Amino acid sequence: MKLRIVVPIITDLFNQEVVKEVAQFKAPDTEIDVVNIVRGPASIESRYDEMLASPVIVEKVVQAEKDGFDGVFVDCFGDPGVHAAREMVRIPVVGAFQPAALTASLIAGRWSVVTVLKSVVPLVDDLGRKLGLSQNIVSIRDIDTPVLELQDKGVLEKKLLAQIELAVQEGAEAIVLGCTGMLGLAQTLEKTMGEKGRAVPVVDPTAAAIGFLELLVRSKLSHSLLAYPYPPEKERKF
Amino acid sequence: MKLRIVVPIITDLFNQEVVKEVAQFKAPDTEIDVVNIVRGPASIESRYDEMLASPVIVEKVVQAEKDGFDGVFVDCFGDPGVHAAREMVRIPVVGAFQPAALTASLIAGRWSVVTVLKSVVPLVDDLGRKLGLSQNIVSIRDIDTPVLELQDKGVLEKKLLAQIELAVQEGAEAIVLGCTGMLGLAQTLEKTMGEKGRAVPVVDPTAAAIGFLELLVRSKLSHSLLAYPYPPEKERKF
Amino acid sequence: MKLRIVVPIITDLFNQEVVKEVAQFKAPDTEIDVVNIVRGPASIESRYDEMLASPVIVEKVVQAEKDGFDGVFVDCFGDPGVHAAREMVRIPVVGAFQPAALTASLIAGRWSVVTVLKSVVPLVDDLGRKLGLSQNIVSIRDIDTPVLELQDKGVLEKKLLAQIELAVQEGAEAIVLGCTGMLGLAQTLEKTMGEKGRAVPVVDPTAAAIGFLELLVRSKLSHSLLAYPYPPEKERKF
Amino acid sequence: MKLRIVVPIITDLFNQEVVKEVAQFKAPDTEIDVVNIVRGPASIESRYDEMLASPVIVEKVVQAEKDGFDGVFVDCFGDPGVHAAREMVRIPVVGAFQPAALTASLIAGRWSVVTVLKSVVPLVDDLGRKLGLSQNIVSIRDIDTPVLELQDKGVLEKKLLAQIELAVQEGAEAIVLGCTGMLGLAQTLEKTMGEKGRAVPVVDPTAAAIGFLELLVRSKLSHSLLAYPYPPEKERKF
Amino acid sequence: MKLRIVVPIITDLFNQEVVKEVAQFKAPDTEIDVVNIVRGPASIESRYDEMLASPVIVEKVVQAEKDGFDGVFVDCFGDPGVHAAREMVRIPVVGAFQPAALTASLIAGRWSVVTVLKSVVPLVDDLGRKLGLSQNIVSIRDIDTPVLELQDKGVLEKKLLAQIELAVQEGAEAIVLGCTGMLGLAQTLEKTMGEKGRAVPVVDPTAAAIGFLELLVRSKLSHSLLAYPYPPEKERKF
Amino acid sequence: MKLRIVVPIITDLFNQEVVKEVAQFKAPDTEIDVVNIVRGPASIESRYDEMLASPVIVEKVVQAEKDGFDGVFVDCFGDPGVHAAREMVRIPVVGAFQPAALTASLIAGRWSVVTVLKSVVPLVDDLGRKLGLSQNIVSIRDIDTPVLELQDKGVLEKKLLAQIELAVQEGAEAIVLGCTGMLGLAQTLEKTMGEKGRAVPVVDPTAAAIGFLELLVRSKLSHSLLAYPYPPEKERKF
């Protein structure tokens, strides 16, 4: 199976790391290909950024289908462009939120998200409402750190741990990392929490997304045409 | 008060009618100005159309604030670009869904939407979930007619009546017209239903939107900066 | 348009202030008239008070329709008598809760109420459930102060600020003042919060109510006859 | 235990029948006493009727406590005056809706109400929302018959059966009779449905109410003072 | 009426106490009979324990019906085996959760559970979801004490009080004791809370269960055959 | 990866077919092993059957972990024994409902289940409530056919199609086959619906379950210890 990852920002800062990370949990017969977008924002932290990135994301998804890929992962927690893109192709398209939220709902009854910035919290709340499982979300916490400052893994881990502990105290039974830029930390965090006697699974949204695409492709499933019909033909000016 | 209406399609087919309609229910000191978008779709009937229209809508909203307008109505039932636009300005911005849905929830306990096409139903369902009042929505029905074929008022009225009657049978206590292109019919429909002994209020989303903008401007209220913070500064390529 | 405000308590303590406040945000062609009730409680802080006030409120609403008013605002946060009154008239009737809650749901995803007394909290919770948007309510907080002790604006402002800050910490993106006796403070509170770097819109329920009545009257909408049919004729002894 | 039934209408049309009915399912040591109200409506079929009856109901409940009764049943499906009355006494007070709805939720996952008139449906919907278990209600159906025309048991039974069958088809696993005037029919209806191979329990709200009062009194429980505090002292004019 | 209590653990540690407790609040004509199970766990604190106990519980319920009992109380807060047992008999069968949760929802708008161990919290959360009234549950707290260590009433009372106070601070208007082993304390706790000026009703789940059985038996109601049909005949190997 | 499938019935009627079906959609490095249970019911169509099968299912899951398997699929739509089993092992354990329901929620906004018998409908409703996504379920329909009579694929397909068409008319955008005995039909049904112009994805719960296990194992995730702690040690008699 051939999957394309669309990293929907104009920097390739995360590309290498994504490939490396994905290599650890993809199936052996899954081939991964990563592309960036050329126009759009340097990172996605607002509805405005999502809006700017979406048209280029959809182009990339349409191209992926033409290029023969079996599925596309739009590598951003906010699922930008994902729903519009589904209207244009028949191969499965996932962002990071839906797979992570659904996976968390299987391994735990109630879970929390830990994301980058307080400004992103309302966006995540909306995603939960749209997916129909707000009842499972204990809280949406943040580490008060922009996406482009996630590089220092030591600092990042410390900030995440602090929020994860608060989430567990609030009743979270699992944690969803609320940004696909928080790479390579899920298992470390889970281990550290375990050593503190508060073992809690930490869902890496990238892992969940790739796993969900593999599930869909192998099951020969894709998004519903009743939910995502092709847009009617009409004049569209660019 | 000066309000700008952004008709988010590349045709000015509805502009005249909108101005005429709004004149009937705006406050005497409200000045109305209508603009179209120059790039985007001829009509909005899918997430793809919404995505295409959104960046230009946001530009128009930002320009409206610069031009000294007190509020902006994005004249489309799906609220395209509204949430991203709110992040860029401090004047109130509304689409048609939120004002209509909230107005319906005041005048009735449970209500239905009658929209244009079955393909739009999932989009309206999402809007209801995001606004947190799905419990009030009895059904989302459609008249199986594209936006650009709503001109024949006789046919349109007949199709709407058929769906409104079904909605009332299902328990709807009010009706929301699910497209801002269904102009000038709300009161006629309400009257006809009354004559059939099934009086039901019909919410014209344009009327609700203008009324809500007037409410917000006079109350000196606008969208929350906590819910719609300005996007952080960063590189954004176009 | 002529609107009547029914202040549903036997003191005219708030009348002057209400007129002054409403003058600031009503439309220029809206004429306001204020009346009190002659029997009933000195203030409304319990279901018992609401029950005592309701029959007189309904009389006043019926009289307002006979007097040619276009709409009535029952000036109390708990919407006392509003739903019964709607069964008796065809002009729009609003209390303060519904307009404020619906307005808050447009400008923010999740919001809190700050009301007078802990004993009122369950009543507000019920109002949210009935309106179908409990999901949007973060918390219902109180300032532990009876309605008739709200006169000292300095003390009141301080108490409100303390609760607003707690609400914002809990995730509230907007605040609804949970008593119509908290007059003239919404903008000051909003400004003070902004100066503290925690800008949050504060909904004055009186402003929202007048705005909603104007919206309804101009849109030629009123409560649904299917939701609020005239009570069947029968013997009723007084 | 001494229980008082307040039949909140100005006719004693149902009193004898209520006493007879209750005798069949009360505990042997439960003494029943029935009173009417002297002012108010001939029957309760609207919010307006509920409002008119409530003050006299509360007087009767307060008197019952003074008279040494252990609990009060306000014998009407809409729970009129019940919540205000609870603020004035410490003995348990129930209407018919809450006990019936809670009992139905124990014996079935999802259930329907069959009530008298379509105009009552929105009131029942509100009661379900306030009690927090709307999710369990499949539908609220009506037999299009006013309370004061329920005397012909043959006709009544036939009309109820028709609606019960529709409710079962919709997925109802139990039925709640939505008016306390539908006396003495629950078991017959259940038996007839069983003979048709569609056995479904039918909850007589009067039976559920008496049973719940007995449960509360024997368990030494009553409504919470935190939910129903005594109204603060203040001037109240009549 | 003859009721059988099935204490679903292999120790008779609680039997005497249960009989004594129930004697205080049962109706005079209710005869109580207590049995244990012979195989299964020493206490029930996990889904695994529930699973082990369930087959024997169902046997005991079936036997109770054969023995002519009118109803069965499965004396455990988690309702183990209750739903399977209902498929096998026509007499009413209740556990402790459903009666307690429904009773709490009548006497208060929102309430909390205080249970034994944190490990039980997810089980209680599930029970609330299944019963359709999660909206009424403020929190599920625990005293960090296994069932078999509840004997020291002094310590138990102290631990319960600490959690009850926290629950009331969170907004709970009533408390449900989340283990049927917390016998004989409900009224003491309620009294102590009242003396602290925080009067809150405390629901003893055993009292609620017996009361609900009496209600059902007297009302001639039992669980719905549509919700709990007899299992189809087929081969079943043991 | 080595996955074990526990077919929780005493007949090996479905084993061969399961292996064949799974071969079509598993990853190339996934090894599948199928076992039956030796005690329990011939099929699972009631809570009683689930209860009988559960203890043996848990034994099999514990054995699978000892045998070095990486995950276990309990091959039944009702997830029997799954939650108890999770308390006893650290490898991921899934039934068929959770994976299918979560997959459907990603590919469609609202979906329906088509199951075997009306008697199973309340069980599926409960599963949806527990998983917290009832809002996404349009309806739970049945083909009125016991599990052991699903062998005639022609008849089965026809019956399923009839219900799927009704579900689509009700608004379902995807279909979940509500029994793991409906093997090998998902794609045929999807194709036939597509040919009728009503293309709708049909989720085979077996495919979803295997895919979810692969996702979990590759992501190094399993159920939360906070949600599924090991049962405390104590005496347990068999």
Label this structure with key terms.
238 residues, four-stranded parallel beta sheet, homohexamer, Rossmann fold
Q: At the first level of CATH, what is the class of the largest domain in chain A?
A: Alpha Beta
Q: What is the percent of helical residues of chain A?
A: 40-55%
User: What is the CA-CA span between the terminal residues of chain A?
Assistant: 34 Å
| CATH topology descriptor of the largest domain in chain A | Rossmann fold
Report the average pLDDT across residues of chain A: 96
Q: How many helix segments of chain A?
A: 8
Q: Give Rg of chain A in angstroms.
A: 17 Å
Strand content of chain A is 15-25%
Low-confidence runs of at least 5 consecutive residues of chain A: none
The number of strands of chain A is: 10
Note the run of SSEs of chain A as H and E.
Answer: EHEEHEHEHEHEHEHEHE
Structural class of chain A: alpha/beta
Name the chain pair with the biggest interface and residue counts per chain. Answer: B-C, 50 and 49 residues
CATH architecture of the largest domain in chain A: 3-Layer(aba) Sandwich
Strand arrangement, major sheet of chain A: 2-1-4-5
Give me the oligomer status.
Answer: homohexamer
How many separate domains of chain A?
2
Biggest sheet of chain A: strands, sense, closure?
Answer: 4 strands, parallel
Net shape of chain A:
globular
